[in-house]
Amino acid sequence: MQKIPTWILVVAVALFDENGRVLLQQRPAGKHHGGLWEFPGGKVESGEIPQVALVREVAEELGIGLDPAALEPCAFAEEMGCPAIVLNLYTCRSHAGEPAGLEGQQFGWFDLAGAAQLALAPMDRRLLQQLVR
Ligand SMILES: Nc1nc2c([nH]c(=O)n2[C@@H]2O[C@H](COP(=O)(O)OP(=O)(O)OP(=O)(O)O)[C@@H](O)[C@H]2O)c(=O)[nH]1
């Protein structure tokens, strides 16, 4: 019998460049919160270690390499529902390669004040507020 998850773990990264700007991307149209901006990342698959899932998601979405050891836990947000979503945010200050929107998404580097001006997905806005603090 297949078990229906009561909650889903999502991981995301606040990736900083050498100027202290953070990379954000736009969620694809047609998806939940389509068009809103988010920290890159995605769902942790069954049996996957969260940091490894985040490295995989960022490689799939942006074509860049992150070192799992460089990911620092930073903040989390929750959204109640069926299933509930738990979103863990890590910071990272280095990456390998040049980012590209491999899923056709817009992305950019923003200072924290500029990031706050974007139309952010609700949990990403709460995570940004924690990051600023
Ligand atoms: N980033 C973000 N995700 C959210 C928020 N609220 C919310 O329910 N989610 C959900 O958290 C999950 C994020 O995983 P994801 O980035 O892999 O999402 P996705 O739409 O590409 O999912 P998919 O892999 O099923 O196509 C999605 O199910 C998304 O709908 C939010 O405020 N921010």
TrEMBL record:
Query: Into which EC class is this enzyme placed?
Result: hydrolase
A GO term, aspect molecular function? hydrolase activity
Q: So what does this thing catalyse?
A: 8-oxo-dGTP + H2O = 8-oxo-dGMP + diphosphate + H(+); 8-oxo-GTP + H2O = 8-oxo-GMP + diphosphate + H(+)
Names of required cofactors:
Mg(2+)
Pfam families per UniProt? NUDIX
Q: Give the keywords, sorted.
A: DNA damage, DNA repair, DNA replication, Hydrolase, Magnesium, Metal-binding, Mutator protein
- Tell me which PROSITE patterns the record gives: NUDIX (PS51462), NUDIX_BOX (PS00893)
- KW Metal-binding (keyword) present: yes
Q: Start and end of every Nudix hydrolase domain?
A: 6-133
Enzyme Commission number: 3.6.1.55
SUPFAM superfamilies membership:
Nudix (SSF55811)
The organism's superkingdom is given as Bacteria
Question: Has UniProt tagged this entry with the keyword Cell membrane?
Answer: no
- Annotated family: Belongs to the Nudix hydrolase family.
**Any idea what this protein is called?**
8-oxo-dGTP diphosphatase
* Organism of origin: Aurantiacibacter gilvus
